[in-house]
Amino acid sequence: AGVGVYPGDVIFGDQEGVVVIPRHLADEVAKDAAAQERFEHFVTEKVWEGRSIFGLYPPRDPVKAEYAKWKPKAAKARKGKK
């Protein structure tokens, strides 16, 4: 796709596509990706509970507050599974 790839860049791919992450941005992108993955897990759990995706996206203040309460519980549950 015309993207430059340089030594040290991070290449990541899955069934949805491939991205090239410049080395100097890799840590920041990884942190943001992990945070997004946690939020996606929260949304998936809420949809499985019967909630509509509408209202969860884009997350407004009530959803952000609910997510903030959910995160510690989810972290504790993950630790218990190890």
By helix and strand content, what is the structural category? alpha+beta
What sort of overall outline do the alpha carbons produce when their principal axes are compared? elongated
Number of helices: 2
What is the averaged pLDDT score? Answer: 92
Report on this structure.
The structure is a single chain. This protein is α+β, with helices and mostly antiparallel strands and 82 residues long. The protein has two helices and two strands, in the order E-E-H-H. The protein has helices spanning 26-48, 61-81, and strands at residues 10-14, 17-21. The chain has a two-stranded antiparallel sheet with strand order 1-2. The radius of gyration is 16 Å and the shape is elongated. The termini are far apart. The model has no long low-confidence stretch (mean pLDDT 92).
Summarize this structure as a short list of keywords or feature phrases.
alpha+beta, 2 strands, two-stranded antiparallel ribbon, 82 residues, elongated, 2 helices
Give a quick rundown of the structure.
The chain has about 80 residues and is α+β, with helices and mostly antiparallel strands. The protein has helices at about 25-50, 60-80; strands at about 10-15, 15-20.
Explain the layout of strands and helices.
Blueprint: E1 10-14, E2 17-21, H1 26-48, H2 61-81
